[in-house]
Design goal:
The protein has five helices and ten strands. The strands form two sheets. The chain has an eight-stranded mixed beta sheet, sandwiched between helices. Strands 2-3 form a two-stranded antiparallel ribbon. The protein is α/β, with parallel strands linked by helices. It has a domain of 138 residues: 3-Layer(aba) Sandwich (Rossmann fold), CATH 3.40.50. The longest helix has 14 residues. It starts with 20 loop residues before the first helix and ends with a strand.
Length: 211
């Protein structure tokens, strides 16, 4: 997800907005400090990143008309952060064939009943972010977590009001610095937040922390 380059080609053609590692690691550390159950959940080998990203081979990305970037092979950011920070090996999926993810397919059509994740964590494509959240809440085990990196203004939407009134995240970690998702290094136009849901725990309000 990124709000940069709103006039660019539709994101699903080449959805390559790389999430920086440092903010992911900042979030993982803060979340474990605040929720002892999170530390336990992340120690189990059932973490899923359904929109893992990355690219296995070099490629050229037309970020917007007239701006073409050469992208070298790039690892999947959430799996890399989980591995480096916690030693966790996440199951990975991405719709793009060039992603180094273990599985390739449309997460919204995920039907693997043999793997029930305890944690689903990702930066979802903006155009289907709500659908990814709902699918993740459906798939995760009863006491499992769903963690999404979203624009802070994701809270501000009439069409999502009913969802947030009945299924608000338990925790929201607002990143104090705007992130850069693009090869030019320019910061995004909005702030970002890691939202954390716990399945089976109704969310009527959200505890917010700035990190």
């Amino acid at each position: 997800m990124s709000s940069t380059g709103r006039g660019a080609r539709r994101r699903h053609e080449f959805d390559y907005y790389v999430t920086p590692l440092a903010p992911i690691k900042d979030f993982l550390r803060a979340w474990q400090e605040d929720d002892p159950d999170a530390k336990v959940a992340l120690s189990v080998d059932d973490v899923l990143d359904p929109c893992a990203g990355g690219n296995a081979t070099p490629t050229d990305w037309e970020y917007k008309p007239g701006y073409v970037y050469h992208i070298p092979p790039t690892p999947m950011p959430y799996p890399q952060a989980l591995r480096e920070e916690l030693g966790v090996l996440a199951l990975t999926n991405d719709v793009r064939p060039d992603s180094p993810a273990e599985r390739h397919g449309d997460f919204l059509a995920w039907a693997d009943e043999t793997f029930v994740p305890g944690v689903v964590i990702t930066n979802p494509p903006f155009s289907i972010a709500m659908e990814v959240i709902l699918k993740s809440l459906e798939l995760v085990r009863e006491d499992g977590y769903v963690v999404m990196l979203l624009r802070l203004n994701f809270f501000g939407s009439a069409k999502r009001l009913g969802f947030f009134q009945t299924c608000a995240p338990l925790l929201a970690y607002v990143h104090h610095e705007r992130m850069s998702f693009t090869p030019d290094g320019k910061a995004d136009s909005v702030e970002y937040v890691h939202m954390v849901w716990k399945k089976g725990v109704p969310g009527a309000g959200t505890l917010t922390r700035v990190i």
